[in-house]
Write a structure and sequence with these properties.
284 residues; single chain; 4-stranded antiparallel sheet; alpha+beta; extended
């Protein structure tokens, strides 16, 4: 009986594969490269099979970076039955690649009013995100930066300005989507959060996704030094070969702090090292 299950299982899986393949829809839009790169070209291929434009004699690409103006030339090129393709130059200041298709005569395919949205690979190297302590002509303080391209306004509020939103107003660096502010007096250990105005929320408080230290998962971010200030003392360290490496993955906030003598919960990296590093070493 056990032997007979092999051919039966293979037969069943074969029919299952045929069934799944039959019901999976064809990929409607293929963009190369993905994400697209500002200032470079991107190729868009549109499969109109089963779409509103399946019977179209011509198809045009209609994209958001030109203010959604009608695109009448050049038309996309037919590259097969109901397959259309074109190559466009992505503007250097584009932050997203949002587009639909039309036939030039009022027939549209806009993905059920959701459009097609592809990421743009922004180069944020000129805008180090997060909290970056620095000195300036204004004295010691911290430069705060956050990427929020859809925000109407942004502020940083914290212990350094009594959590007052207007006092920490940030400046937009269009078209990068980055907001920044230099806050004098915001030094190591200061707590903060970003506050955004959106089309639906006048004050949306969010923790810094680039924070180097936080008060728990939902707590405030804390201004901290970056790794360049760490005094490395190991001079002979060599990363083990992959076949000899053992990696343990733990959630710092909940690994320590519950009945193990650590008073804080959620715990911190320091708590785990002090209370449990010998235990991890004992595991080999």
């Amino acid at each position: 009986m056990i032997r007979s299950r092999g051919p039966l299982l293979a037969h069943f899986l074969g029919w299952l594969l045929v069934l799944v393949t039959a019901v999976l829809p064809a990929q409607t839009v293929l963009v190369t490269p993905n994400p697209v790169v500002p200032g470079q070209t991107a190729t868009v291929r549109y499969d109109a099979t089963g779409r509103p434009l399946a019977a179209a004699a011509q198809v045009f690409l209609h994209h958001g970076w030109n203010g959604w103006q009608n695109v009448t030339a050049p038309a996309m090129t037919s590259v097969g039955t109901r397959l259309w393709e074109t190559t466009v130059t992505v503007p250097a200041d584009a932050v997203r690649f949002d587009f639909v298709f039309n036939n030039g005569s009022g027939v549209w395919d806009n993905n059920a009013s959701r459009d097609w949205l592809y990421l743009v690979a922004l180069d944020l190297s000129a805008y180090p995100l997060g909290a970056n302590p620095a000195g300036s002509e204004l004295g010691a303080g911290t430069v705060f930066r956050v990427w929020a391209p859809n925000a109407l306004s942004a502020s940083v509020a914290g212990t350094f300005n009594n959590w007052t939103v207007p006092a920490g107003a940030m400046t937009a660096h269009a078209p990068s989507g980055v907001w920044s502010a230099f806050v004098p007096g915001a030094t190591f250990g200061a707590e903060y959060k970003f506050v955004f105005e959106t089309p639906t929320t006048p004050q949306l408080w969010k923790i810094d996704p680039r924070a180097r230290r936080t008060l728990g998962t939902l707590g405030n971010a804390i201004v901290e030094r970056d790794g360049s200030h760490y005094p490395w003392t190991a001079t002979s360290w060599q990363t083990p070969d992959l076949d000899r490496m053992v990696i343990y993955e733990i959630h710092i906030g909940t690994f320590s702090g519950q009945g193990d003598g650590v008073p804080r919960y959620p715990a911190t990296y320091r708590d785990v090292v002090d209370a449990h590093l010998p235990d991890l070493l004992a595991l080999g």
